[in-house]
Amino acid sequence: MEPVNVAVIYYSSTGTVHALAQAIVEGAQKAGAGVRLRKVRELAPPEAVEANPAWAQHLKDSAGVAEATLDDLGWADAVLFGTPTRFGNAASQLKAFIDTAGPLWQQGRLAGKVCSAFTSSGTAHGGQESTLLALSNTFYHWGGIIVPPGYTDPIQFRTGNPYGTSHVAGAGAPGDEVLQAARHQARRVVDTAAALKAGRAAS
Ligand SMILES: Cc1cc2nc3c(=O)[nH]c(=O)nc-3n(C[C@H](O)[C@H](O)[C@H](O)COP(=O)(O)O)c2cc1C
Q1: In which region does residue 48 sit, left (phi positive, over 0), alpha (psi from -120 to 50) or beta (all else)?
Q2: In the chain, fewer beta carbons within 10 Å around the N or the C end?
Q3: How far is the CA of 41 from the centre of ligand 1 (A)?
Q4: Residue 22 C-alpha to ligand 1 middle, in angstroms?
Q5: CATH number for the domain that contains residue 46
Q6: Is the distance from the beta carbon of residue 14 to the nearest atom of ligand 1 less than 6 Å?
Q7: pTM exceeds cut of 0.85
């Protein structure tokens, strides 16, 4: 069978979600998937970016990551979205990309994909779950098959977010535990997408 195609599409201002996205890529590749890592376009005005040295630095550091296109969404058997929490919601940069997907949706080409999401927030109770649940609204509209990590691996009892991998950026860069959780989430997404792909090919 052909490998599962996984699109990891994310937004990150200061690198936290980018680090999670890289661990998601590692987990998906290790599970045998073909993976595209894609950032969404930065839409903030240059003066806003330049006012925050960490933001300006990350923009430079991530210059080599390709920007997401609709072709990436159409190609994917599984989609993982990553976003920082913004007032308890997804970042507008990611939402703007999602909002270009109308034509694919209209053609029914988003239905049946395996979908999952990951996030970071500044503080522990800053809205990680609400951000992940908000992204689920999109997946429902697509007719996606939402695959959360739940408590399906011992690592989930250590990092504790069944909705999707999440990190408190205010406590520093993602450490080994949360990166392990991200790899586990990716593996679970790939395993589910592979089973579906095999079943669809056989039917
Ligand atoms: C406009 C704005 C809104 C934010 N809203 C929240 C929030 O609601 N809760 C929270 O804990 N952190 C909030 N943050 C902090 C970000 O979530 C945090 O900086 C981000 O997760 C870091 O990820 P990144 O390094 O990938 O950009 C906000 C930051 C900005 C700039």
Answers
A1: alpha
A2: C
A3: 17
A4: 19
A5: 3.40.50.360
A6: yes
A7: yes
Residue with tokens 């589910």: 192
Each of the 203 residues of the chain gets a pLDDT tens digit; together they read 799 999 999 999 999 999 999 999 999 999 999 999 999 999 999 999 999 999 999 999 999 999 999 999 999 999 999 999 999 999 999 999 999 999 999 999 999 999 999 999 999 999 999 999 999 999 999 999 999 999 999 999 999 999 999 999 999 999 999 999 999 999 999 999 999 999 999 99
124 CA closest ligand 1 atom index: 11
**Cα of 49 to ligand 1 centre, how many Å?**
14
Residue 96: which of 148, 44, 167 has the closest Cα?
Answer: 44
Q: 180: Cβ below 6 Å to ligand 1?
A: no
Total Cβ atoms within 10 A of residue 30? 12
Range of the domain at 41: 5-202
The total number of structural domains in the chain stands at 1
In tens, the pLDDT along 76-103 reads 999 999 999 999 999 999 999 999 999 9
CA 175 – ligand 1 centroid, Å: 18
Measured from the CB, is residue 93 less than 6 Å from ligand 1? Answer: no
Please count the other Cβ atoms lying within 10 Å of the Cβ belonging to residue 129: 17
Distance CA 131, CA 138 (A): 12
